[in-house]
């Protein structure tokens, strides 16, 4: 399973919503953080916001990834469809 954070931006917008996405085989599960940030401060490679001003936001992103990964992993161990 691969879990990462991404910035979802609408066409022509300079701000985007942060989403946590889990991929497993042909399934995908998305969780929105409900936070908007500017495209210029988002690091696509690392999946976090750049700069010390966004340190707490990056902690929140890592926590959501860790917390959401556990129930998804438990479901996969018993071969259930992700919902």
Task: Report on the architecture of this protein.
The chain has 83 residues and is of the alpha+beta class. It has one helix and five strands. The protein has one helix spanning 55-77; strands spanning 2-9, 15-24, 27-38, 42-43, 48-49. The strands form two sheets. It has a three-stranded antiparallel sheet, with helices on one face. The radius of gyration is 14 Å and the shape is globular. The mean pLDDT is 86.
**Strand content of the residues, in percent?**
35-45%
Overall SS class? alpha+beta
Shape: globular
Low-confidence stretches: none
Mean pLDDT score: 86
Number of helices: 1
Terminus-to-terminus distance: 15 Å
Largest sheet, in brief, is: 3 strands, antiparallel
Oligomer: single chain
Give, in spatial order, the strands making up the sheet with the most strands: 1-2-3
Binned, the helix content reads 25-40%
Radius of gyration: 14 Å
Question: What pattern of helices and strands is seen along the backbone?
Answer: EEEEEH
Number of strands: 5
